[in-house]
Amino acid sequence: MTISGNLLIGGKETRGSNGEFFGIEAATGQPLPGSFGGATKADVEAATTLAWEAFDIYRETSLEDRAAFLEAIATEIDAIGDDLIVRAMAESGLPRGRLEGERGRTMGQLRLFAKEVREGKFQELRFDPADPNRKPAPKPDLRLRHIAVGPVAVFGASNFPLAFSVAGGDTASALAAGCPVVVKAHSAHPGTSELVGRAVQKAVEKSGLPAGTFAMLFDTGIEAGQALVADPRIRAVGFTGSRRGGTALMKIASERKQPIPVYAEMSSINPVILFPDALKNRAEQIATGFVSSLSLGAGQFCTNPGLIIAVGSDGLDAFIDKARQLLPETPAQTMLTGAIAKAYREGVARLEQHPEVRLVAHGRKGGDFEGAASLFETDAASFIAHHELQDEVFGAAGLVVRCRDAQELEEVLGNLEGQLTVALHVDEADLAEASCLRSKLEMLAGRLLINGFGTGVEVSPAMVHGGPYPATSDGRTTSVGTLAIYRFLRPVSYQDFPASMLPHSLR
Amino acid sequence: MTISGNLLIGGKETRGSNGEFFGIEAATGQPLPGSFGGATKADVEAATTLAWEAFDIYRETSLEDRAAFLEAIATEIDAIGDDLIVRAMAESGLPRGRLEGERGRTMGQLRLFAKEVREGKFQELRFDPADPNRKPAPKPDLRLRHIAVGPVAVFGASNFPLAFSVAGGDTASALAAGCPVVVKAHSAHPGTSELVGRAVQKAVEKSGLPAGTFAMLFDTGIEAGQALVADPRIRAVGFTGSRRGGTALMKIASERKQPIPVYAEMSSINPVILFPDALKNRAEQIATGFVSSLSLGAGQFCTNPGLIIAVGSDGLDAFIDKARQLLPETPAQTMLTGAIAKAYREGVARLEQHPEVRLVAHGRKGGDFEGAASLFETDAASFIAHHELQDEVFGAAGLVVRCRDAQELEEVLGNLEGQLTVALHVDEADLAEASCLRSKLEMLAGRLLINGFGTGVEVSPAMVHGGPYPATSDGRTTSVGTLAIYRFLRPVSYQDFPASMLPHSLR
Questions:
Q1: Cβ separation A498–B254 shorter than 8 A
Q2: Residues of B whose CB is below 8 A from A470
Q3: If you write DSSP's letter for every residue of A36-87 in order, what string do you get?
Q4: Name one Pfam family in it (chains A, B) (predicted).
Q5: How close is the nearest chain B Cα to the Cα of A487, in Å?
């Protein structure tokens, strides 16, 4: 399949004239076929202007039409066939099985939101009937619905080239809410983005929707993305990436004449708390699960378990011993980009050289584009004293924090920043102690797990992939699961409207 | 009833040592009995520390206990008796009838939220059952509830000394959500605040809740309020007041180490659009309603109709003529404070001196502490060219914008900032034209009204008292009505929890 490297604006393909870049093969660092043109400010404005024009029509599409459109996107993505997987494998270095699963998840998300749209509950309709006889004043007729906030800027994520990029969770939930979407494609997988972008464009056309309903831009640097967030026609932002990137967008959004919400999913080290009895009874089993979760996808998950917290015990020693035994057998894996691999090596080196940190073990050493899992250990006092030990090292790096007792473990928890997930490994005899922590942990993270790891993120109604700052910019929401649609809605109340003027849903 | 002027912290009364100030009789500018001590930084910290300590217990109170507590507050406010009305009349200059109504509304809000708490729907419980046989991976058990965000800072509003102050809508909705509240009392009605604050304190004690569940601070300037918003234990802010005050709090909140949401209801001029047939058929009747709404409560409502937009016609002339006839008969009214009366006079003078603005009529002239209604007129082109004509003049000042035609009227709408309300006056023949505007108006305001004025704000499930920035800091919410509770909640997901560790509501 030909890669044109074009921007997708207004149902057309346009060559971006703001610089040129290439898709890079993750495993080799070599350029892949096709060159991509970066968007100029004029391209950004063209996309947002069309999105704004499309907004009034798109947001008032019937629930059935909108649901069918989401399903049409899934169908078009499916129709790309294996070319999509092949290109995504080359650009991301992720294996076929993972990408096929991710494609399934991407289509599944779109279909789940289609179902959500059809059900229509997200509109949260409310009716307060009039009471003309009420004293001292008659009661008016009030009706409420939630409407789409406006065009949404979505930033593709490097670590989910399909499920959290061009037609990923942010795009699906924004489109479901009735918001046109302008995607800033991630430069780590531009060819994958183009293929998916064209699929969305086709679905827009086949569904007879305004061409401005969807656009996709490339950016050789950060200017186009920044211009997008600053654009007055953009009314919300979805982002998954680094804390530096997310906070930069938050700042731009808050300094606009009309500030807008930024839903940035930024960084998390996803603490795993090992309780005494669980360690006593099945330290090795937990270690096996941990090493597997730590190294999954080269550790490039937002929910990667980067922190193990436990009170020192024979069980903890056994856990560490098992991890020390397993890690050297764990193969290195190609990372998403050369820059990510380099940053990972630097992060691991910082931990290695940290005076208060001891190495447990490294995984099997890999090449320049690969990341090997690494596990370190420190004590609670050092962890508390050195805030930098909380910095996410994106990749398969883990740190065990050994506590003197349960009280020190609580102190460690009290020093943690906001997280996406906290996992607890407990056996029957640990339940009472673990229960006492629940309240503290609820304030720390958006999702709490028992006897598991956070790396599997269900796309379902009860999922929260979110959490207090700095895990995300806005802990009141989730970016995965059906609740994500609420990020892009606002309530409007209609008072004493004649039926003919009311939106259909409120008549 | 004695006014102590004390801060209310931890179930006790404490004299604030950071300066002294007095309640001022609005009608005379003279000090009232009782002197008030401002909170020091230590007082702020004492209040927030206790609030944080109370949080874990308070947020896990049973729905019944929490509802009963809200009702107990209403009962204690009722028990203050007429002393509350007398003091509020003196401090605010508002008439007895209005304040008795406002007291009823305050108690009604508390009881409405009690009902909302009992029903429990605000927790938005979600259940995704496990499926151990799912391929390729078993599906975990996921359950979701919404929990309280943490202690909330509430800033009392000058214009609602009861319904949007110490135990007003923000406090009621935050307490309903499970958040302890620290109130920064408005210095325009400190005695009223103290009486209500003590009532809340009594309800806390009688309900057996932690003393930190509620605190009330006085501030001689802005330092205590600023320290409150910057305090790491405060997790959300409710504010009703000026745009300057609201945006200052937004800035502090966004620059915290952990940014927090600020729900600031700031300024709105609440456009009223008069359609041709309505003007043709009943210009005088609409003018009568308008002058009454404009001058209600000396115009000191967030939803005061400050802007009339219409296409020039005989009907519009008749409307203006009727207003010109009615206004001089409209008595001046005591304003909330001398500073507000002065700012109002200055705002009116700016309009009078504006080269593009013509006076329609003034209301009956009043004294230094009173505000007289004033109506002005300009043309659409001037209104568009002079952005300052959109600045809210807090009080009973109105501006008629005369448009050449429907297209120019749309241009005026396109130039407006976010609003709380937009009202449309229409007759049967106007409906088609008005319907075409609905979509634009939905993007402009949180509440749209037909043939009414926004000054009556129902406290009900379908009310939105909110709107796009700068009407509020966050257009995704409302500060009035039951939907307000959602401002203070965030979702948490529980994965594979044993029943004994789950919150009761999710078992």
A1: no
A2: 258
A3: EEPPPHHHHHHHHHHHHHHHHHHTTS-HHHHHHHHHHHHHHHHHHTHHHHHH
A4: Aldedh
A5: 9
Q: Do A126 and B461 touch (CB under 8 A)?
A: yes
All structural domains of chain B: 7-21+32-266+472-506 (3.40.605.10), 271-450 (3.40.309.10)
Supply the residues of A annotated as catalytic. 265, 302
Closest approach of chain B CAs to the CA of A390, in angstroms?
15
List, for chain B, all residue ranges whose pLDDT scores fall below the cut of 50.
none
The candidate with the shortest Cα–Cα distance to A27, out of A337, A299, A330, A296, is A337
Shortest Cα distance from B175 to chain A (angstroms)?
A: 17
For B417-443, letters b (16+ CB in 10 Å) and e give bbbbbbbbbbbeebbeebbebbeebbb
Cα A453 from Cα A294, distance rounded (Å)? 9
Distance CA A228, CA A49 (A): 11
Q: Is the dihedral of CA B302, B449, A137, B291 positive or negative?
A: positive
Residue of A105, A77, A101 whose CA lies nearest to A197 = A77
* Binary contact (B140, A448; C-beta < 8 A): no
A-interface mutation test, from B126, B410, B493, B501, most A Cβ less than 10 A away: B493
A136 band by pLDDT with thresholds 50, 70 and 90? confident
Task: Give the pair of three-digit tokens for residue B10.
Answer: 């931890």
Strand bridging mode B358-362 / B445-450: unpaired
- What is the identity of the amino acid at B236? A
The model's pLDDT over A466-482, given as tens digits with 9 standing for 90+, comes to 999 999 999 999 999 99
Average pLDDT over residues A430-444: 96
- Among A496, A205, A228, A1, residue whose Cα is nearest residue B434: A496
The yes-or-no verdict on residue A1 having pLDDT over 90 is no
> Which positions ≥6 away from A325 have C-beta within 8 Å?
none
Residues B195-234: tens digit of each pLDDT: 999 999 999 999 999 999 999 999 999 999 999 999 999 9
Distance CA B21, CA B337 (A): 14
| pLDDT value at residue A2 | 87
Which residue type is seen at A104?
A: G
Distance in angstroms (rounded) separating the CA atoms of residues B221 and B289? 39
Beta strands in B203-332 (DSSP E): 214-217, 236-240, 262-265, 271-274, 307-311
Mean pLDDT (chain A) is 97
- Smallest CA–CA distance from B56 into chain A, residue: A439
User: Please, are residues B7 and B348 in contact by the beta-carbon 8 Å criterion?
Assistant: no
Judge contact between A88 and A94, C-beta under 8 A.
yes
Cβ atoms of residues B36 and B14 within 8 Å: no
Candidates A393, A168, A162, A157; CA nearest to A298 is A393
Residue of A nearest to B98 (CA): A136
Alpha-carbon torsion A64, A67, A68, A69, what sign? positive
pLDDT at A214: 98
CB atoms within 10 A of CB B207: 17
Residue whose structure tokens are 């509620």: B214
User: From the CB of residue B255, how many other CB atoms can be counted at a distance below 10 Å?
Assistant: 11
pLDDT reported for residue B100:
98
CB B275 within 8 A of CB B427: yes
Q: What percent of chain A has pLDDT over 90?
A: 99
> How wide is the angle at C-alpha A48 spanned by C-alphas B248 and A54, nearest 5°?
115
Return the bridge partners of A401, or none: A309, A378
B233 to chain A: closest CA residue: A443
Cβ separation B461–A431 shorter than 8 A: no
Q: What is the pLDDT of residues A58-67, one digit of tens each?
A: 999 999 999 9
